[in-house]
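Hi D.,

Good news: the full-assembly prediction came through. Inputs first.
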Amino acid sequence: MDLFATAMPALGEAFGMILQPAVLGYLVLGVVMGLCIGVFPGLGGIAGLSLLLPFMFGMEPLYGLALMVGMVAVVPTSDTFASVLMGIPGSSASQATVLDGFPLAKKGQAARALSAAFSSSLFGGLLGAAFLTFFILAARPIVLAFQTPELLMVTIFGLSMVGILAGRVAVKGLVAACLGLLVGTIGEGAASGELRMSSYDMPYLVDGFALVIVGLAIFAVPEIIALLRQDKAISDRQVLGGGWLTGVRDWWANIWLSIRCSLIGVAVGVIPGLGGSVVDWIAYGHAVQTSKDKSQYGHGDIRGVIGPESSNNAKEGGGLVPTLLFGIPGSGSMAIFISGIALLGTGQIEVGPSMINNNLNFTYAIVWLLALANVVGTLICIAAAGGIARLTNIRFALLAPFLFMIIAFAAFQSRQEIWDLVALLGIGLLGILMRRFDWSRPAFLIGFVLAAPAERYTNQAYQIAASRFRRSMEEGFDYLLSPIVIVLIIVTVISVIAGLRQAKNIQAEGAVNSGGKRAPFLFLVAVTAYIAIAYYDAATIPDYARTDRVFPVFVATVGLIGCAVLFIQTRLKPETDPLFADREVMDQRDNAYGLWQTLGWFAGLLALTALFGFILALAIFLLMFIRFRAGKSWAFAILYTAAGIAFICTMAALLNRDFPPGLLQSYLDLPWPLS
Amino acid sequence: MTNIFKRSAALLMTVSAAGLAAPAFADGHALDLSGQTVEWIIPFSETGGSARWANFYAPLLSEALPGNPTVVVNFMPGAGSTRGANHFQELEYEDGTVIFGSSGSTQFPYLLNDPRVRYEYGDWNVVLASGTGGVVYLPADLAGALEEGGIDAIAGENFIYGSQGATRLDLVPLLAWEMLGLNVEPVFGIEGRGDGRLMFERGEANIDYQTSSSYLSGVTPLVEAGTAVPWFNFGALDADGNIVRDPTFPDMPTFAEVCEAAPACETSGPAWDAWFAFFSAGFPAQKMVFLPAGAPQVAIDTYTAAFQAITERADFAEISENTLGAYPQMTGAAAEAALERATSVPEEAQAYVIDWLAERYGVVLE
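Then the structure:
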C-alpha cells in the first residue's frame, strides 16, 4: 500500500530522531513544566507556551519541539487535580470532570478518581497519537469535507448535550442554555460589529467575557463559597489507602467507553474551528447516554470521570491535524505552537500545506513526542496522586484563600484589568444562585462556549447557501444537505430524544430538595428580566446590521418561551416540586456561615484591590482571613500570608505577568510587584 | 547549538560596526538598558500575525540594544487593537523600557475616525516600520475563464470571500474588486486570514487574498497542486511613493496593471485615490514600533540603531524569510516617511471610503 510505503521509513526515522538523550531530556523538562502549569486552575497551554517562546528562537528544532510538545500534551492530564480535588475546572478541557470527580473526592475516593482519570488520559493520548500516525496522511480531504454547514451541525450536536445535562426540570436547563448563549453574544457582533448588551463607554464588555473567567466563576466560585460556609474539609472521610489501583481497574473495566470517548476527542480535535472546550461535555453526555444505570451520575460515578478524561488528551492529538496540515490552529495553544515552530532553528520547518511533503519525519517526531509525553506525564501524576489527594483532608478555611488568590490571578490574565475580577465575582454570584436553585450550570456553560461558533456558522452558512441557491436550486441543496450533515442531523435528533427521556433520572449536580416558592420565583424573575432586556437590546439593532441581530433575538425568544412555561408551572405545581429546588433550605444544618458574610470576604478583596492594587490587598485579605475567619494565631496568619505572597509573586515573575493596580498606584509609583 | 554562538558572534560584530557608524553612539550618548526589562506592548492576542512578528524581533532586539535588556512581549488584545493603542497613548516616556507595536488594523480605525480611537500617531516616535504585500488568487476554473475571456468573463460570477470585517485590512482587496467590477460578497466573521484560506480550500469561497508571507507558505503549495492560481498583487511603493512591481513577486502583475487593463477600472479619480491611500496606509508600513510620547532623541537613536543593526545582520534575509518575507524593514528617516504615508490620507479619500462602507456594507462608524 502506498500509504505505508511513505509512512514507514519516515516513522522509523522519526523514532530514531527522538530517541536521543538530549531530546528526551527536553521532553521531560517540558512535561514537568506542563504539569506544573496545568495544576493551577485557569492557567493552561497558552500561558505555558508563552513562557517558552522567548527560548525558541534559533533553538535546535527537535529540542524545541520536545519542549513544546511535552508541555502541551500534559496540561489536560494534570488539570484533573484541581477538577477532582477542589471542584474547580483545572482548564477548559476538564470542566465536565468536575461533575463526578469532585463528588468522588468528597467521598474520600480522590485517589481512585485521579488514577482512573490519569489512566484514561494516558490511553486517550496514546490512542490519539496512534490514530494520528496513520490518519495524518489521509486527513486532508476529510478535514476539507467539513464545510460550514457541517461545522454548524457539529456545533448543534454539541448544544444537544444540553438535553442530557438539563437536570430534573428540562425547561430550566433549556433556559439556562439560552442564558449561556446570550451571555456568549455580549459584545461586538462577529458579522457587522454591532454591539450587544454593551457600549463603547464600557470598553470591557465590547470584547465579551473570556471563557476562563466564566468557567471559573460558574464552577469554582460557588464551590469555594459553599465549602467555606460549611467550614470543614472537602472530604470528611479518611482517604482510602491504595485507591489508585482501584482507579486503574475501574478504567480497565470501562475500556470500551474509554475507546469511544477517545475517538470523540480525536474527531472533535480534527475539525478546526470548534475549539476543544466542548469535547469534554460531549464525552460526558455520551458516557451518560450509553450507561445502563445512570443513578450515580453526579454523585460520583467513575464513568463520568473516565469519559471526559479519555477525550481531552485525545483531542490534543486530533488538534495537531489542522495545525500541521493547514497551518490553522485548532485552539489558542496551537496558535502559539505554530509561532514557536516558526522561530525554531532557521525556520526550516514550516507548518501548513507543505508540512507532510517536506517534513514528514518532523511530523512523525511530533506525534511520537506526543505519545511519549503522555506516558511520562501520567507516570509522574500517578506517583504524585496519593500524596496530593490528602489535600482533601485539610480544613477548607485554610485552603480557600489560597485557591481564591490563584483564581483571581488566573482571571486577571484574560484582560489584565480590574474588571476581570469584577466579572469573576459577578458571574460567580450568578453561579452561586444557579447552584442554589438547581439550574443546570453545565447547560449554561455549553451555551456560553458554543455561542460564538453557533452564531458565526449560522450566518456564514446562510450567506453562502443563499449564493449557491442563486446559481441553482440543486447546487444549494447539495451544499446544505451533504451526507455528513444528514448523518449529523440523525445523530443529534436521537441524542436529543434519548437525552430528554433520561434527563429526569440524571442529576448531574447531585440531588437538591425543594423549599419555599418565593426565593426560586425571584430568581426566575431576574433571569427572565435579563433575557427580556437582551431581547430588546438585540431587537433594536438596525436593519443594515441584521446579521448581528438574528441570533440573539432567536435565542432570547426561545428563552422567553421557556420562562413563560416556567411561570405557568410556578402557579400550578406544589412547593415540593423539583421546580422549586433550593439548596439553601437543604444545607441549612451544614452551613456554619451565611452566604453574604462569606461572599463579603471576597468582595472585600476586590474593593481593596481597587484601592491599593492586588498584592497589598491580598496581603491584608490573607492576614485577616486566616486570623479572624479561620481563627488561627497572628503568627500563623503572618507566615501564611508571606508564603502566599511569595508564591504568587514567583509565579507572576516566571510567567512575566503584572498584577491589577488600584487607585493608590495612580498616585504613587511603586516598584513591582506592588505597581 | 553551535550555530547560535556563531550567529551571536556575527551579531556582535554587526552591532559594533553599526555602533561605530551611528552618530548617537559616536557621541557616547546612548541609553544603557543593562539589567532592565523592555516591555513590548502588542495590542493583539498571542495568536496573530503581530505576535509572530514581535516574537521574531524580541530576542534579536534584546541582543542588539546596549546593555542587552530582557525584551518581553506583552499582549494586550481588545477592541480590534484600539484598546492597547489607547493604553499606550496614556503612557509618558520614562526610561525607554516601553515600546508599542502597531499594525494596519490599528491604522485603519484611526484613519476612519472610529469612535474608539483615543490615540494620536503624531505623538509617538517611530523606530521601525515593516512592510508587506498582498496577493489575490482564484480557483483554477475561474482563473482559466479569466485567462480566456478577460475580466468580463468572470464579471457575472457570484464571488464569495471570507472576510474579517470591511473596516479592517480587507478594505483594500474589497475596494479593489469592486473597482474591477466584480460582484464579491464578503462572508464576515472569519477569525484570521488562515480561516479565509481554509474556506477557499473547502470550495466555499472562490476568491481570496493573503499577505505575502502567508501566501508563500500557505498558498504556494496549492498553486503547485493546481487548485489555486495567483491573479495580481497590490504592488509595492518605490522611494517616490509610486506603485511598482512587488520585489517578492516580480513576475506577477500589480493591481494598477490589472486595473489599467480592465474597462470598468481607472487608475485615477476618487475611487483610485481612495484605494491608493488605504493601500499605502495598510501595506508598505503595515507594522511599526513606537516609543511613547515625549521620548528624547537619544532614546529614539538608540532604538533606531538597534533595529538597524538587526536588519543589517548578514543572516537577516535567511532568518526573516519565513516570518517577514522579503520586504523593507525601515528605520530612521525611511521609517518616518513610511509613518507619514501610513497615517495621513487625503480628506477626500477618507470621505470616499466612509461613504462607501456605509452604502455598500451599512457600516456606520459612530
